[in-house]
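Contributing new complexes? Match this layout with iron/sulfur cluster.
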Amino acid sequence: MTEKRVFLSKSKITAFEQCPRRLWLETYRKDLIHYDDARQAIFQTGHEVGSIAQQLHPDGVLIGHDDALHLALEQTSELLFQADRRPLFEATFAYEDVLVRVDLLIPEADGWRICEVKSTASVKLYHLSDLATQVWVAVGAGLTVSRACVQHIDSRFRYDQIGDYRGLLAEADRTQEILPLVNSRQHLVAAAKMTVQGAEPDIATGAHCASPFSCPFYAHCGKDDPPPTAYPVEVLPGQAGKRAAAGLRAAGYGDLRDVPADVTLDGPLQRILDATRTGEAYLDVAGVRAELSGWAFPRYYFDFETVAFTVPRWLGTRPFENVPFQFSCHTVHEDGAVSHDGFLDLSGEDPARACAEKILAVIGSVGAVVTYSAGFERSCLRGLAARFPDLAPRLLDIAERLVDLLPVVREHYYHRDMRGSYSIKDVLPARLPELSYKALEGVADGRAAQEAYKEAVHPVTPPERRDALYRQLWTYCALDTFAMVRLAQSLSEGDTP
Ligand code: SF4
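Output block (do not edit by hand):
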């Protein structure tokens, strides 16, 4: 029986490197693919960055023919040999039935520079494998490769002039580093072809399903996995928790509830173990009160929602910079009165200045500004101060007055249903189930808030949808700060559970 001929692409080789079963499923069971929203967003960003990389070479030529790759191969070889050599986008090569399209191919005195364009802030290990596959195919097809590089986002870039993205991409020359990977391609490609020619590989789910990408076949492969135990030892947080979990696993314990009473752990991990074993929450009311007693009134419970673009959209901003488009603030006065205010801008224009001004209108010159994980709010406030020097003294004063509820919770409270997480999204349903985020419509976490923002400001979004998103965002962010108010109150009063 003759073996069927197998054609592979760079992305199929990448899939094989993650997991042979993934390559097989991508070949025969595309119907089972399920990409999450985060992955879709990564694809979109990749297209945006790729298009900027092309704009930065205005004399470049795009090899089209996405649907007729034999034409793309022909056009590439014609352009490679013409006297006027120009940068090529999507130059196409085939070798040993592997086909690659090179993001950027730049003529140099001693050959062609292959550039892989990535939307990350640094070079990752899997980028080098991608680059090696391209070099292996291109060299095999007869190209003289002078250098092999990864172009990635330079997070120091600042967008200062409309449409000018020079400097957005930094280039890392990895020619020497990838040589062993290039040499391994022959063997790798042969193994990938054998996988495609065989039956679906019998590979169980594991850590490889999430690294370097979250695999789109997880729902398929994981459907027969046994349900996870309710309180696995791996919920123990931090590095110390990881070490303790490994020790407990090695001793034969998978669930914290099964760990015998004579087994003890260090410090805060013991609290988690006890609370999980007994089902009784740990709460040190005196400790909470002592910590909160230093927080001056009025107390401003404050939270930002931000959006970050890989390709900066507003002048004065950098790649991945968190730009606040929303905040919520619940103010608690010494007599117990509570009021709420906030800010939300879905115009699509740079929201930072108006946001900063509203902060200064809402937060007075005295009183603690309460956050949950203060580092994020502090860096946003400092970012606003850096952009608007006239507002800087007052913004920096607010940043100085930040206090943090997270370490108070971490030190003085634990309920086993938090499963090792001190995120307010996990603490709230355990402590105050009536305030759970699960009841929210649409936006229920920070990532969803970013996506909602991007959808709302998109020109094709109808006004009624934008209005709905506005309501969802407003409700979500208000819950974030109200949750802090109630949590601080509940923990200091020591009521049940
Ligand atoms: S879900 Fe895991 S086991 Fe299944 S194909 Fe993907 S990486 Fe392989």
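Reviewers usually confirm one structural detail per submission. For this one: Residues 288-493 form a domain with the Nucleotidyltransferase; domain 5 fold (CATH 3.30.420.10).
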